[in-house]
Amino acid sequence: MIRALGVTAVVFALAACAGPGGDRIGSLNRKRVEVDEPVIEGALEKAMAAYRRFLEETEEESAATPEAMRRLADLQLAAATGSYDYVEEAARRPARVEAGEAADAPRAAVTTVRESEREFEARATRIADLSPAAAPELPPDAEAAAALDKARAEEAIVLYTRLLERYPLYPRNDQVLYQLARAYEESGRPEEAMAVLDRLVREYPQSVHYDEAQFRRGEIFFVRKAYRDAERAYAEVVRVGERSAFFDQALFKRGWSIFKQSDYERALDDFFRLLDIKTAAGHHIPNEHNKTEHQRVLDTFRVVSLSFSYLGGPEAVARYLARRGVPPYENLVYMHLAEHYFEKRRYQDAADVYKAFLARRPLHEAAPVYHMRIIEIYREGRFPRLVLEAKREFAERYDPAAEYWKHHDLGRRPDVLAFVKSNLVDLAKHYHALSQQARKRDERQAAYREAVGWYRRFLKHFADDPQAPELNFLLADLLYENRAFGEAALEYERTAYGYPPHPRAAEAGYAAVLAYREHEKNAPPAEQRRVHLQAIRSALQFADTFPAHPQAPAVLTHAAENLYALGEHERALAAARTVVERHGDKADAALLTAAWTVIGHAQFDLARYAEAENAYAQVLARLPANDPRRAALVEKQAAAVYKQAEAHQIAGEREQAVADYLRVARIAPGSAIHETAQLDAAALLIQLENWPRAREVLEAFRRLFPNSQHQGDVTTKLAYVYERSGDTLAAAREYTRIADLGDDPALRREALHKAAELYEQGGKLEQAAALFERLLRELPGDFEQALEARAKLADLYGALGRADARRAELERIVAEEAAAGRRQTPRSRHLAASAALALAEPLVTAFAAQKLGAPFEKTLARKKQLMQRAMDAFTRIVDYGVAETTAAATYHIAELYHRFSRDLLDSERPDDLNELELEQYELLLEEQAYPFEEKAIAIHQKNLELLTRGVYNPWILKSLDRLAELVPARYAKREKQEPYFASIY
Amino acid sequence: MRPSTDRLLVWLLALLIGACAGPGPARRAAGDRSIPVPVSAAQRADFERALAAMRKQRHAEAVPILERIFEENPRLPGVAINLAIAYLAMAEAEPEAAKREPYHAKAERVLLKALEENPREAAAHHQLGLVLRRQGRLEAARDAYEKALDIDPQYALAHYNLAVLCDLYLQDTACAIRHFEAYRALRPEEAETIDAWLTELRRRAGAGGAS
Prior knowledge:
The structure holds 2 protein chains of 2 kinds. Chain A is mainly α. Chain A has 45 helices and no strands. Residues about 15-40, about 85-105, about 110 and about 130-140 of chain A have low confidence and may be disordered. Chain B is globular. The two termini of chain B are about 30 Å apart. The interface between A and B is large, with 28 and 52 residues.
C-alpha cells in the first residue's frame, strides 16, 4: 500500500512536469520505461481500487477524505491520460540533431527532415500534452481504451469537483484545481478546463502550480489563436523567472505568440533572450547530452530567421542588432537566416545575407567558411558568373598572404586550407579552359592572363602540395599554348626538376626541351644565342635526369650536334658518348649515326685522330652503301688516319707513319688524300732506305693516279729508288722518262745523263751510247758539257767496238775544242787533250807494227814517217798544257824513241852480208840506235820533272819504271815495304 | 806482265843484289812505347790468323779480320799498320788508277786513327809515308818519314824509303845522299848496292844538282 502510494506520487510528479522538450522527464522516463512500467500499471489499478474503497467506506468527512479523493482522482486521471505512455512517446521522438557537428556548420543546422514552415510551426509550438490534437496514437482497441480513459477522466472530474465543493479550504485545492483542469482537458472539455485554470491563477497566485497553470493557459489560448491572451499568460510565467521549469518554454511560446501577432521585432526580443540563455549554456553546440536543447536552439534560430525574413532580410538583422546589441552568436543569426533563404531556394538572398555578415565581420573566424557557403549557394542556384566572382573574391580575401591570415592561423583550419587550395586550382583550370575555348580573342587573352596568375599563386604558396607538380605542368602547358615559350620552358623545367620525383617529371623535362626549341625559333636576334645555350642546357639536363625516357637519346644527340656547332668540342663529345654508351642498344640507327658523327668530328678537331677514325668507322658501318653522306665521311676518316701518320712522322716513328699512310689507301682508295698519303709513305720509305717497299708504293702510285700532278716527282723518286736498290736498268728507264717528260732543260739533261750512266753501269752500253747521242743532239748543254758527253760517247763507242764512231767523236772533240776560242776552259783542254791522246794511240800502234826489214831503207823511211806522224800528234797534245795528258804524251814520245831504238836493234839483218860486214852493220846499227835510246831516256826524264811541279800521275810513274829499266843505276830503286807488321801493338 | 808483278820482281832482284836478309818483321821503334792496351785472347788469336794470311799474300782474307779487331780496339797500331799494308797491296792489284785511290784512302784513314791514339808510333808514320807517296802527296810523305825518324833515328827502313822518295820523286839529291848514307850505316850488308847509288848521286850533285 505504502509502496503503491510512493510509486503513485512519483508518477504524479512526472505527469505534472510533462511538456514538450521536458528534458528531465524524458530522460528519467526513459530509464523507468525499461524497468518499471508493468509494475506501475498494476499498482495504479490497485491504488485506485483502494481509494475507492476508502471513499465508499468513509462517508463521514475526515481529514483524509479530501486527500483520498484527490488521490483517487489523480489516479483516474493518470490512467485516463495514459500519461506515461504519452511522456514516453514524447521522449521517443527522434533527436533531430546529430551529435558532434559544429553549431556553426550551416548545413548541419538545418533539420535534415525537411519540414515545411507549417510543419515547423506546428512542431515547435506543440502543446505539451493533453491536447487532443497532439494525443498519441492509441493501442489497437483504442476506442475501448479511449472510452475507458474518458470514463476515468469523468470520474476524476466528479471527484475533484466534489472535493472542491465539499472542502473549499483544503489547502491543496490549488493542486486539485490543477488536476481538475487536466481532467477536463483529458475528457475533451477545454473550456471548462480553462475556467478552472483561470480560477487557479486567480485564487492561488502563490501556488507552486501557478507557473504551470499560466503556461497551460497560454497553451490553450495559443491553440485558440488568442495570441494576445496567450502572450499575457506566458508573460506571467516569464515573470516568475528562470526558476520556473516552464520558463524556457514560456519565453519561446511568448515569442511565438508575439510572432503570431506579426510583431516580429518584439517576438525577436523573446527569441534572442532565449538564445542568450541557451548559447551561454553551450547548447548551440550539439553533443550527446543536449539533443532536445539543441533542437530548441535550432528551432529558435529558425523562427528568428523567419522573423528577419519578414522584416526585410540582412538589413533588418543589422538594424535589430544595432538596437539590441550584438550577441556573441551574431554569425549564427546571419547563418541561419541565410540557410533559411537557401531552403526556400532564395539563393541570391541567402548569399546576400552571408555577404552582409562578411561585410560587417570580415575577420570573423567563420568568414572563410561562410564565403565558401556563398560559392555553394551560387552553384546550387546555377549562377556560374556569380560563382566565379565569389571564388575570385574568396581567393583574394583568403589568399595565404592576405590580411585575414594575420589574424588567424591557416594551419589550424585544414578545411579552409583545403578549400583555399582547391579554389585556386578551380580558378586556374577554369580560366585555362576559357583561354582555349572562348570565342573572342580578347576573352581568351584575358582568361590566359588570369589562369597564369592563379596557377602562379597556388604554386607560390603551396609548392609542397602533392598537386603542385601537376599544376605546374598545366601552367607550363598554358604558357606554351599561348606562345610564351620561354616562360613555358622555365615552368616545364620547374615541373621536371623542382619537385620530389613524380610520375610526370620526365614528360615535363621533355616538354621543356620542346619549349626551348620553339622559344629559339621565335626569339629576337639579340637573344638567340642565350636561348640557344639554354636549350642545350635543358636538353642535357633532361637526358641526364631521365635517361629512360624514349626521347632521351634523340634529345641528347641533338644537343651534341648543337654543342659541336658552337665549337664546344669536349662537351659535344661527352654528350654524344653518353648517347652511344647509354643508349647504344636501344636507340635507332639514325641517332647513333648522328652521335658517332659528332664524336668523329669532335675528336678530329681535338686532334685525337685515332679516336676520330674509330668513330667514323662506326658511322660508316651504319650507313647504307649508297648513302650520299658516305663520301665526305670516308674522306674525313681517311684524313684522321693521315693525321695519325703525320703525328708518327713528327715523333720520328717512321715505320708506324708508313703503316698509317698506307692505311689511308685501304680506307679511301682513289681519294685525293690517298694520293697524298701514298706519296708521303713513299718518301718515308725512301728515308728508311726500304727500297723494295718504296718501289712498291711508288709503282702503285703510278698505276693508281696516272693523271696526278705528282707523277713527275714519282718518276724521280722511282729513279732514285731503282738506282739505290741496284736495279740500274730500271733506274735508267726512269731517268729517261724524266728526260722525256720534263720541261726544264737542265733537269732533262741531267736525267738523260744519269740514265746513260746507269745504262752503262748496267752493262747496256748500246742504250748508253744512244742516250749520249740523244743528249748531244737535244740537250748538249754548254760547250764543256757537250765535250764531256762526246768524250763519254767516245768511250762507249770504244767499249762497243765501234772504232770508227769512236774516232769520229774524238776528232770532233778536238776540232770543236780547238775552234772554241775564248770558251776554252781547263776542262775542255783536258778533254780535248785526252781525245787527242786517244786518237794518237793508233799512230803508235801503226808505228810499232811497221817492221824494219828488207827492203831496209824503205821500211826505215816508212817507220820514220810513222814515227814523225805519231810524234807530231803527241807534240800537239803537249801543247794543250794539260798535266796528265802532257805526261802521257811525253811518255809516248819517249817510248817512240825507245821503240825505234829497239826496233832498229832488233831489225832483220840483211842476209847477204859476211861476218865482217855483219859486224860493221851491227856497229852501225848501234850507232844509229843509241841516240834514240838517249833521246828516250832524256824525254822520260823530262816527264819526271813534272813531279817537282806537283804533278803526279801514272804516266810519270810509267816513265819512272821505264827509266828504272834503261838507267838502272840511277832509277832502279824501289821502296821497301815489309809484307806484314808482326806486333799487334 | 802486270806492272805490280814487275815491280815486285825488280824489287826482289834489288834486294837479292843487296844480299839483304829480307825484311822480316818490322823493327820496333826504340825508346817510344805506346801505353800497353789490354788485348783479349780472342783478339790476339784473330790477329795471328790475319798475320798468317798476310804472310801468304792473302790480303783480302786478312782485311776483314783486321778491320774487326781495329774497330773493337783502335788503340792497336800494329793492327792499323797491317791493314795499311794490306790495302796498299790490294791497291796495287787494281790496274786503273781511279780504282786504287779508295784503298789508299782507307790506308791513310786507318793509320791516322792509329796515330791519334799512338802519336809516337814510328812504324805508323813510316807506313803512312809509303801511303802518301802512292797518293802522290810527296811533301807529306817526306814529313811522315821525317817524323818517324824523329822518333826513331835508327829506323833504317825509314831512311831508305825517304832516300828513294827524295831521289826519284822529289829530285832532292842532298836528302837522298844523306839518308842512303844513314841507311848504309845501319845496313852495312847492303853496302855494295847503296855505295853504287851514292857514287852516282854524288857525281850528279857535284855536277850541279838533280839531273
